[in-house]
Design a protein that fits this description.
Chain lengths: ~260, ~280
């Protein structure tokens, strides 16, 4: 991913606003952009959702197939998450094998879903040691305007919630909805100098010194975290970020849940 | 789509009334919808639904060509990347380009090379990205038709839009615009693209079995369809860019005081509070 430049004027403007508690797009420092979720966008997928977080646009399709379990988890289904940063989405994305950014992104989204036990993977076992359901979460970024961690996670969570396991196709009884038991919500905070901002836009993200993604469940418990970029946080800042993630997460969860 | 495997051999794709499985006549196009300017980051973009196909196209450029050794000092490169999302087909497709996508990307690049005014932009590339989000046969035609609109949306100078449609043969009958079942069980498939203003053919592929007469019939059907698609493309661009008198008035409300001495001071309009005040 080649770097995009932020002009000095914009940089100074964002800093000046942020230190006065304001942002270029008029949001409060702890306010995420508007999230809209559209389910069932792709009929060829077993579940799908398109998430628009501000101008960031992400499409997730879930494909289910029957495969073998891993030897160390013979009684659980298999989860596989991949992200394609297709060159359509940004002038800085290039075609080719996944770059470290895409791999980190996929792993962080995967971690939130896996560690929160969102899907009951035991119920995706067909015959122990032999046959289980394999669940592919394929994340397609269509338009990149900042904070892919949260946008991808929201689209993936909503898509899983709308997934129907195609058991009838492989003669395994009736189709059934994916056994979803928890609703993790990821909230990313960026740090510029000493200011913390939730759900950074593209310009804010490019200027950030450090980034922390916190995934919490419906009890407010922490299920996954990922710190990024070369800057650092104080322990006090980390605590504030987690509290914000819990609060913002509560606001976002209803729009991800199965309606 | 999973039912394809269950369709028994010998099943008829065309009924006794001459209608196809989805109720179409042999020369009938599936429903088509195009929307221009749907992505924010791309210089130009378009979204297209064509039957069960859902395709996005985006254009970047003309921009500096990378890597540099590919740069042509006399003209722009026109490069297309056709890609299918893993979830766009019934059996998950492995991410990344396969041989089929590479071939399709190449023939689409060549088709657009013939209409873009490349000489105006030496050392640059015009990059066209086609993403198939949901596939139902005819994705290259849908991608090419959508990409034309995206190029126009990006303001890339061209001789004309390109329009593309396939014809094929099912149950021995030449038919326009095959869907997935027809494509899987049909006898021939022939995608093509034309420059509608001049009738030049800029993309042509064929597989299967057609007699010379059948081929001629297929081309006539496709050319007719391409002209219909051309109208839909132009309509999408008109919807995106047409400006009505109302739009202009909304942009700059006329100064009521200047019209005449009798006019009263305008009541405070809601716009005065700005979008945030609502």
């Amino acid at each position: 991913m080649s770097e995009e430049v932020v002009s000095e004027l914009m940089r100074a403007h964002v800093y000046r606003l942020a230190s006065a508690g304001q942002r270029v797009d008029g949001r409060a420092l702890d306010e995420p952009r508007k999230l809209t979720i559209e389910r069932g966008f792709v009929k060829t997928a077993e579940g799908s959702a398109r998430a628009r977080l501000g101008n960031t646009d992400v499409l997730v399709g879930i494909k289910m197939s029957v495969g073998e379990p891993y030897p160390d988890t013979p009684n659980t289904g298999v989860l596989s998450t991949s992200v394609e940063l297709i060159p359509m989405a940004s002038p800085t994305f290039e075609a080719g094998p996944p770059r470290p950014e895409a791999i980190e992104l996929a792993r962080v989204v995967d971690r939130g879903i896996r560690e929160s036990k969102m899907v009951n993977m035991e119920r995706l076992c067909i015959t122990p040691k032999e046959k289980v359901w394999v669940m592919f979460i394929d994340i397609h970024v269509l338009d990149f305007d900042g904070n892919l961690f949260d946008a991808c996670s929201y689209a993936a969570t909503a898509a899983l919630g709308s997934t129907i396991v195609p058991a009838k196709n492989v003669d395994l009884g009736a189709d059934f909805p994916l056994p979803v038991e928890h609703w993790p919500v990821s909230v990313t905070t960026a740090k510029m100098k000493d200011v913390l901002i939730v759900d950074p836009s593209l310009d804010e993200e490019r200027m950030a010194d450090a980034r922390l993604t916190v995934t919490t469940d419906e009890n407010g418990d922490i299920r996954a975290m990922q710190k990024g970029l070369s800057g650092s946080f104080t322990f006090d800042e980390v605590k504030r970020i987690i509290e914000t993630a819990q609060r913002v997460g509560r606001g976002i969860r209803p729009s991800l849940q199965r309606s | 789509m999973e039912d394809i495997e269950h369709i028994e051999k010998g099943m008829k794709l065309i009924g006794p009334d001459g209608r196809r499985l989805d109720g179409r006549k042999s020369d009938e196009l599936r429903p088509v919808r195009i929307e221009a300017g749907v992505l924010r980051r791309a210089d130009g973009s378009a979204y297209m639904e064509w039957g069960g196909n859902k395709v996005l196209a985006a254009v970047y450029g003309p921009r500096e060509a990378h890597p540099r050794h590919l740069q042509d000092p006399a003209r722009a490169l026109v490069q297309c990347r056709y890609n299918m999302a893993p979830f766009s087909v019934s059996d998950r497709k492995r991410p990344g380009p396969d041989r089929r996508s590479v071939e399709i990307s190449k023939v689409i690049s060549e088709a657009f090379s013939s209409v873009v005014f490349k000489e105006q932009f030496p050392r640059t590339s015009v990059d066209i990205f086609i993403e198939v989000l949901q596939a139902d046969a005819g994705t290259r035609c849908a991608g090419l038709t959508a990409a034309s609109v995206a190029l126009a949306d990006a303001g890339v100078p061209m001789r004309d839009l390109l329009a593309s449609c396939a014809s094929g043969k099912i149950d021995g009958v030449v038919c326009l615009d095959l869907n997935k079942e027809e494509d899987n069980f049909g006898d021939a498939d022939c995608p093509m693209a034309i420059v509608p203003r001049t009738g030049e053919i800029v993309l042509l592929q064929m597989d299967g079995h057609l007699t010379y007469d059948e081929f001629q019939k297929a081309m006539e059907l496709s050319i007719g369809a391409a002209h219909r698609l051309y109208e839909i493309q132009r309509d999408a661009l008109r919807r995106r860019y047409s400006v009505t008198l109302e739009d202009i008035l909304k942009e700059s409300p006329p100064d009521s005081g200047a019209i005449g001495p009798e006019s009263e001071p305008a009541p405070p309009s809601e716009d005065d509070f700005g979008p945030e005040g609502m």
